[in-house]
């Protein structure tokens, strides 16, 4: 069966990573899509799910790596660890042209961006001097992830991102909307939104022995936002591309 997805431009050496782990379907899809447009693809991903790890790095325990195929490695670390290991060890002498992180299971927009290991891996790569893009597929809680949508719009989203003149201190955060592939609109440049996270609750539970354990629960909502924001673009069925940087200064932070 011939794919109807248009090819993206050719790439050279590419390093892939994520935060959902080496066996995540989003990473498998990303590897498949990039293999068709890159000369050489390397994968360094966490051996298990590392969602929500932000830019954490492992400093107090040693890291171990397992080869899972040709140019494919599982690391006992965080997404940022994976970016560092790939760039400063595996590919130290032959660095990649770009690092692609994802495709994350769930959007990385608004107030939740700082928690994202997917975005963090891209930022870490940029800190080490390599351009990077993070990719995420939005989906509704309890619903199915529309990987077919990500497959259909990846090439034009990548081309759009590569056409942008991104500053040396920035990465791109790409989010695909939770709509059928045929209903996806344009790829648009956006800004990070605010107000998408109401609160974070701590939920106590009891195990079978009467002991107490806890889950962290994010309470989200979607305010009315314009298509110029990341969350607003997704609500309008658009692909959101947001430049993100390292400077966390709040110019209006002092009243």
Brief digest:
Its EC number is 3.1.3.5. Helices cover 22% and strands 29% of the residues. The chain is built from 5 helices and 11 strands, in the order E-H-E-E-E-H-E-H-E-H-E-E-E-E-H-E.
Layout: helices, strands, pairs:
Blueprint: E1 11-17, H1 25-35, E2 38-46, E3 65-67, E4 72-75, H2 79-90, E5 98-105, H3 117-127, E6 132-137, H4 147-163, E7 170-176, E8 187-189, E9 197-206, E10 212-220, H5 230-235, E11 239-245
Helix and strand sequence: EHEEEHEHEHEEEEHE
Please state the overall shape, judged from the principal axes of the Cα atoms.
globular
Structural class: alpha/beta
State which percent range the strand residues make up.
25-35%
What CATH first level would be assigned? Alpha Beta
User: Order of strands side by side in the largest beta sheet?
Assistant: 3-4-2-1-5-6-7-11-8
Rg (CA only):
18 Å
Oligomer: single chain
The domain tally reads 1
So, CATH architecture? 3-Layer(aba) Sandwich
DSSP, total strands:
11
Whole-number mean pLDDT: 92
**Helicity level:** 10-25%
Subcellular location: Cytoplasm
Cofactor: a divalent metal cation
Organism: Nitrospirillum amazonense
InterPro entries: SurE (IPR030048), SurE-like_Pase/nucleotidase (IPR002828), SurE-like_sf (IPR036523)
């Amino acid at each position: 069966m011939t794919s109807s997805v248009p090819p993206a431009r050719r790439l050279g050496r590419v390093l892939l990573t994520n935060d959902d782990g080496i066996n995540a379907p989003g990473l498998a899809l990303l590897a498949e899509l990039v293999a068709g447009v890159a000369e050489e693809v390397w994968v360094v991903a966490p051996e298990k799910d590392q969602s929500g790890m932000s830019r954490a790095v492992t400093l107090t325990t040693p890291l171990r790596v397992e080869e899972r195929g040709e140019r494919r490695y599982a690391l006992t670390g965080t997404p940022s660890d994976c970016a560092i290991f790939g760039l400063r060890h595996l590919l130290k002498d032959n660095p990649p042209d770009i690092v692609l992180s994802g495709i994350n299971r769930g959007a990385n927009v608004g107030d939740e961006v700082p928690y994202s290991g997917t975005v963090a891996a891209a930022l870490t790569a940029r800190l080490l001097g390599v351009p990077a893009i993070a990719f995420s597929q939005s989906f509704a809680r309890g619903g199915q992830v529309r990987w077919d949508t990500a497959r259909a719009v990846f090439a034009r989203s990548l081309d759009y991102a590569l056409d942008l003149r991104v500053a040396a201190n920035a990465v791109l955060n790409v989010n695909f909307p939770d709509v059928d592939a045929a209903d996806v609109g344009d790829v648009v440049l956006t800004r990070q939104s605010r107000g998408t996270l109401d609160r974070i609750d701590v939920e106590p539970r009891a195990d079978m022995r009467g002991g107490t354990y806890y889950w962290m629960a994010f309470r989200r909502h979607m305010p009315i936002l314009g298509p110029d924001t990341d969350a607003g673009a997704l609500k309008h069925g658009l692909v959101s591309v947001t430049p993100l940087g390292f400077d966390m200064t709040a110019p209006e932070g002092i009243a």
